[in-house]
Amino acid sequence: MIVCLRTVVVPPGWRDRYLAWIDAGRAIRQQHGILAELVCEPAGPGGDTVVITMWPSDEVFDAWIATPHRDALTSSEVHRAVTYRPITRYEVTGGYLNLPGLTVHDPSRNPPDTLQEPS
């Protein structure tokens, strides 16, 4: 599994549209193998917005980069308004994700088609 990290500059007034664009592209990205996409903003003033994506492998990510579906997604006005810095790839060599814990702390993150385990 790989993690891709990229800083972006979202112009003032474009934040909500950018986040909606990320959300709108979720289905097509998932069809092409993306495992996760997180947009992280600085907790305080200044600093960069960071976009983190997770992919099963370099091959799956490279196939996404080469697909016409990605080209269609990036030809949008919102994508053109944002400044993208280079992507840095990281190989995942350890760690974990506590998926049940994520939804306990923020139930709104459950996709509508996710079945919940009874408590």
Describe the structure.
This protein has 119 residues and is α+β, with helices and mostly antiparallel strands. It has one domain (2-109): Alpha-Beta Plaits (2-Layer Sandwich), CATH 3.30.70. It has helices at 15-24, 26-31, 58-66, 68-74, 77-81, 99-105; strands at 2-9, 36-40, 49-55, 83-84, 88-91. Strands 1, 2, 3, 4 and 5 form a 5-stranded antiparallel beta sheet that branches. A hairpin with an 8-residue loop joins strand 2 and strand 3. It starts with a strand and ends in a 14-residue tail after the last helix.
Cα radius of gyration in angstroms:
15 Å
Mean pLDDT, all residues: 86
Residue fraction in strands: 15-25%
The H-and-E topology, N to C, reads as EHHEEHHHEEH
Based on helices, strands and strand pairing, what is the structural class? Answer: alpha+beta
What is the rounded distance between the termini?
31 Å
Major pleated sheet: 5 strands, antiparallel
Number of strands: 5
Number of helices: 6
- Shape, please? globular
